[in-house]
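Let us work through a complete example step by step.
Step 1: write down the sequence.
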Amino acid sequence: MSQMMELNKVNFVVVDVETTGLYPQSEAITEIAMYKICDKKIVDKWCTLINPEKSIPLFITLKTGISDAMVFDKPTASQIAPKILEFIGDSVFVAHNADFDFGFINSALNKSGIKNLTNSVVCTVKLARIFLPHLPKKNLDYVSNAFGIKTENRHRADSDAHTTAIVLIKFLDIWEKENGIKNLDEFLKLQKHPATRKYF
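Step 2: predict the structure and record it as tokens.
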């Protein structure tokens, strides 16, 4: 996707994964949700539980509600890797703390014999530091509350991806009201600069 494309024509795919732990080299995905956005509208979604092919630690089950019993008959990451790749395509990859989700997606693709994604990446945590500098924390709870977004089932992929998708739409709306419809490159460059003023 050209970085010169106007933002209202760009496809963004907002991704959230739940996992068995923090490190993609040794842990695995238990659930994934992806929301596709174009012109500040949700146009498609896909979500599934995933068999991580290992036991889910109790503290993870307590946090996410996802248990071994829920995933034992679900597809493995290798089985759904082609679907993940197809859904994301050349869209801009978006997540809250994007390094985490991007790392797990690439690890799952690698284990399936698929090369790393090379898509442009937008991290809504980084955008929150720019658009919402007054917030004491930039986690999804604080950011969604700042916009009055009601969230349910926190730490489940579908709910968190949907919330992040709405947050992205809010950021795009603020950016466009301040600057007009700019191209993708200008929006991506926001992540490289510290906040110079409050947008919200």
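Step 3: interpret the result. The beta strands are 11-19, 29-38, 41-49, 92-95, 121-123.
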